[in-house]
Specification:
Length: 258
Amino acid sequence: MTLDVQLVGTTTKMAIVSLRPGQVVYSEAGKFLFSSGDVVMETKLSAPSAPGGQDGGGFGGGSGALGGLLRGAMDAGKRVLAGESFAFTHFSTRGGDGLLALAGVLPGEMRVLELDGRTTWFAEKDAFVAAEAGVNFDIAFSGLRQGFAGGEGFVLEKFTGVGSLLIGGAGDFIDINPADYGGKLRVDTGCIVAWDQNIRYGVERVGGLNRQGVMNAMFGGEGMSLATVEGNGRVILQSVTIDGLAKALQKNAGAGAR
């Protein structure tokens, strides 16, 4: 049963979810906006294990089994490594259809990805907003070179399973396939939001170790490296980088007073 999600808004998107009885949605803490009165909220350490299922990683209301608690603690540790919240918030409805609204933390886009059990999606940290039960949240490591040079860290978010996945980012989104542009694209490291398993992610140095390469690195605004995406698959990019947004806010802080 596909999750019924409507994305609304212009500058900042939010997701309006129609929850049917038996459906469970879990989100990172802090992404909740509002809900109808028949929606039940529960804080747990783990995601639902299957559509309509519940895990044993709750606070004060789970199964209390030691195995479930340890599994929940391990899942929570993975999320912290990926830059997400320690616990998940689970949403379900025990009556009729319920209404639930979720949003990201940055001004920008949201996207609903439908996982079919055969496709794996990878995302940069902080991209996760919410998912339907049956979508598995895990982590993957980008490698030492990508972690150091790419600027986004070593840990990626990894999503498998079946169901609807909501991701968010800054600015506007664009879907692109490197195969349509010769098979390879070079991208600002902060512009990549997510990509599917058919894409190879890497980094490369901006220019050579010469005068122009040094000029590019020092004054080009991209640093020493660019991210690369290769293959025949789907890549989601964002038009605003979190680093660029933070620098703009810092630069203009107190501008009115000055």
